[in-house]
Description:
- By secondary structure, the chain is of the alpha+beta class.
- It folds into two domains: 2-72; 144-279, CATH 3.30.1330.60.
- It is built from seven helices and five strands, in the order H-H-E-E-H-H-E-H-E-H-E-H.
- The protein has helices at 2-17, 36-143, 167-170, 180-195, 220-238, 263-269, 281-288; strands at residues 152-157, 160-166, 199-206, 246-252, 271-278.
- Helix 5 links the parallel strand 3 and strand 4.
Amino acid sequence: MRKSIIFVLLLAGIMQSCAPVYNCGENPTKKLKGSKRLKSIVFQRDSLCSALDNQKIENVELKQDIDELNENLNESKSETAKWKSDFESLTSQSSSEQAKLLRALKEREATIAEREKALNDMKAIISRQDSITEKLNSTLRNALLGFNSDELSVEVKNGKVYVSMSDKLMFKSGSADMETKGTEALKLLADVLVKNPDIDVLVEGHTDNVPIKTAMYKDNWDLSVARAASVVRTLTNNYKVAPKQVTPAGRGEYFPKGDNATPEGRAKNRRTEIILSPKLDEVMNLLNTK
């Protein structure tokens, strides 16, 4: 009993100090004397103390690791918040840009549709003008069948009808006085024009390049203008074509059809051209509204 009390007291004293009485790795039998059981208890105590010290060191290291992880986590959260903010900003900008592009696209589509409509309207008008021109060409050809090809010709160019009347048919040499056969041709032409008041008429006088100078005409300009004016007066005064429908123009020798070096070429150049074209008011109105 007494031995048990002494053992307990000794164990308590050893446990309170918790300081190893030998260095780790030494054989406890070199410094400790006592029973095997005491030596075992002391050895276990020392092992636990060493383990505890090691655990404390590990705990400090773990705490450092935890602090470092917390710092990294906080940095990650901050970066994530910034990324989220940037993403929301980009999303907002993207939506705004998409809306702007969509509006621009719709405006462009509307402009294209408007232009397509205007183009289709213009095509329809031009098609109608071409139809009128062809009909006019056919009508004039039928009306002027009684004249020879060297006196009069009818052709369509650039959407217009050209009636070309030779000098031999229309005028005496060097004069703006009308020949009888020429007035007959103009009457037939006037009958068509009166029925088609929407046809614009340009009367052009042309000469060859042989100079002329008389008491009445200073040069070929004068003669070509006088002949064009004579045709216009005949159409409006004698055959009731509306004056606002007809325009005279003198071209002189500067728009030849033939070679002025030959008699045949000069004969072709001495002519009166009556150019008929459907009014383009509808086309001009369309152009002016754009």
